[in-house]
Amino acid sequence: MTTTSPNTPGRPTPRAIPERPVSPGPTPRRRSFNFSLRTLLFLMAVAGLCLGWFRDHRRLTQQIDDLRNPNPAWSTNQVIGPPDTPGAGDIQAAWASRTPDAQNEWLLLEYDRSVCPDAVLVHETFNLGAVSKVSVFKKGGEEIVVWTGTDPTPRTKKRGVSVIPVAVPFNTRAVKIYIDSRTVPGWNEVDAVGLRYAKNKTVWRARIRAALSKKTNGYGVRLGASVSKRGLAPFMLLEPQGISPLAKKSSFRYLRSLD
User: Which residues are bridge partners to 123 per DSSP?
Assistant: First the structure.
C-alpha cells in the first residue's frame, strides 16, 4: 500500500530507510618509549665496551709513540749510560720527575755487571742537592741502605756530580737513589748514575727499572711504563707512594735472578 503526498497528488511517498549504526574503529595506540631493564643493561654494556676500547686505544697509541721514540724527553731512559746532557738547566736529555715538588722520588737502576762499589756517582743537571739516601740490593732482592745524609753537591751550583761513598761488602747490580724533591724546589733532574769500583773504574750501562712518581696519569701500577716529566716511557716499572708489601715484593721479583 502506498501513501500519497499531500503536496503532490497521486505520487507515492517513499518509506524512510533506517540508518545502520557505524561502529567506531579501534582506538590508535600512542607510541611509548618505555625501556625494559634488559634493554637498559644492554645499552650500559655497549657504553662500557666503547669506553674501554677508547681507553685501550689511547694507551696503545701512546706506547707505539714511545716505541718509535725510545728516548722521550725527560724520561727514565735518559739516565741510561754515561752522562750526555750538554749543559746545565731544564734540558730534555736528563730525567725529571712528573711533578716538581708534589712528592719525593726515587730511581732504581740495574747494571749489566755485578760489582762491589765504593762510591755512587750521581750526575745532576738542574736543581741540585736533593739526593738523600742510597741503597743497594743483595742477590735475593733484600734492600740494604748504605748511605743517608745531605747531598754533597751544593744547591747553589748549576751542575755537579755527587760522589757518594758507600761501603758494600758484597757484589751488587742494583742501586736505588732517593731524591728529597720537596726540600729542593723545582724539577730535580738527573743525567746519569754510575757505580765506581776498584777506586778508578765506573760501570754506567744500566736498565732503569723504576722511577717513582705518585701521579700515574691514569695508568696505575703496571709493568711496561714509567712516569716522568713528559709522560710515559716504555719498559719501566711504576709504583705509587705507600704501596702494599705484596706489591712491593712483586716489583722487586726480578732481583732474585741477579748474579
Answer: 161, 192
Residue 159, CB-side half-sphere exposure with 13 Å CA sphere: 14
How many beta carbons lie within 10 A of that of residue 90, not counting itself? 14
Confidence of residue 212 (pLDDT cuts 50, 70, 90): very low
pLDDT per position as a tens digit, 224-253 = 333 445 443 333 333 333 333 433 444 444
Strand ordering across the sheet containing 131-137: 143-148, 131-137, 172-179, 105-115, 206-211, 232-238, 222-227
Q: Are 203 and 194 in contact (CB under 8 A)?
A: yes
Structural domain boundaries in the chain: 79-208
Question: Cα separations (Å) of 114 from 167, 183, 204?
Answer: 15, 33, 12
User: Strands, E, within the chain: which ranges?
Assistant: 105-115, 117-126, 131-137, 143-148, 160-165, 172-179, 189-197, 201-203, 206-211, 222-227, 232-238
Pick the CATH number of 79-208 from 2.30.42.10, 3.40.50.10710, 2.40.160.10, 2.60.120.260: 2.60.120.260
CB distance 86 to 239 below 8 Å: no
Separation of alpha carbons 174 and 193, rounded Å: 11
Q: What is the dihedral of CA 244, 250, 255, 256, to 10 degrees?
A: 120
C-alpha span between 106 and 180 (Å, rounded) = 9
Strand partners, 93: none
